[in-house]
Design brief:
mainly alpha, 1 helix
Length: 47
């Protein structure tokens, strides 16, 4: 029983960490697009 609980906890932790990294990566992508768009509007350096 303890082995099953430990396995579930470890899998849950791994999924939570993977989700955090995905959200962090998505936020960086959105930020990059926003910066690129702002640069294009202002006529600054291209993306």
């Amino acid at each position: 029983m303890l082995q099953k609980v430990t396995t579930v906890v470890l899998i849950g932790t791994a999924l939570a960490l993977a989700a955090c990294n995905t959200v962090r990566g998505a936020a960086k992508d959105v930020n990059s697009v926003a910066n690129c768009t702002e640069n294009a509007i202002n006529g600054s350096t291209p993306c």
